[in-house]
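Quarterly update, task 2.4: zinc ion-bound model.
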Amino acid sequence: MTRIPDDLVSRLCNACHLVIFTGAGVSAESGIPTFRDAQTGLWAKYRPEELASPEGFRADPQTVWDWYAWRRERCLAVQPNPAHLAIAELERRLPKVTLITQNVDGLHQRAGSGAPLELHGNIHRLKCFKCRRDGGDWPEDVRSIPRCECGGLLRPAVVWFGESLPESALEVAAEASQDADLFLSIGTSSLVYPAAELPFLAKRHGAHLVEINPQPTPLSARADLCLQGAAGEVMAALIA
Ligand code: BV8
Ligand code: ZN
């Protein structure tokens, strides 16, 4: 079991506003490959940045749709892991916690987290590629891509590369980051902007910044503490 420094334990107990920021690494122990993991099998020949883009969808909507359908099935087939569960437990225990996630898998909600700020959207929702209208939940057993009333194709309601993040979610996330006295960045490569700016913003506004990741990232040098370990193990030790 990871040893948590006493200083972090006491900061956690006295935190006025804890912000938790998660990336794909938090879902790795559930069995969902991170974006950086090489695409496997059928998808090995594609670069995720190409598939997760409006250009990719415009060029070959069926392939992009099939990739998300495959990823969504994997999300539904797995369970939240101890990292998700520990985060939901901290939300119950502490006076003020803001959860900001880059993940689209919906596992934080399934672990009991109330209202994560989903900066990159949610794979279980659809929206219209043409008029951007909400397209509701992903329909069961659909083969061909469903269409909106306007005639446009529906697409996963996730944020693709080159697309703007949801304004309100990003605004609330930035405000929370500026107000945080303790900021945990968990399982993210800190490469994708503007989300990756949030831990730096928190640090500039006086937060104590902790990174939890088995690997170093561009954030590591700025962090007050780097816990090099798997999110599930470290977070379970943090709430023990
Ligand atoms: C924007 C949803 C501009 C989709 C995702 C050229 C043109 C346009 C924009 C750009 C450009 N060049 C750069 C940009 C900006 C671009 C960007 O940052 N690119 C990067 C690659 C340089 N950003 C954008 O395009 C954003 N939009 O800038 O709009 C704009 C402005 C005005 C007007 C119009 C437009 C949109 C970015 C959002 C993209 N969508 N996801 C989908 O999921 O399909 S991002 C996607 O990649 C994931 O959400 C994830 O957050 C991100 C990174 O993927 P991963 O690396 O897998 O995940 P993560 O970073 O979380 O890393 C995994 C980590 O886990 C690793 O560090 C690993 O060590 C660790 N780990 C592994 N196991 C464990 C673990 N940690 C803990 N425990 C473990 N067990
Ligand atoms: Zn439409």
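Highlight for this quarter: Residues 33-77+122-158 form a domain with the SIR2/SIRT2 'Small Domain' fold (CATH 3.30.1600.10).
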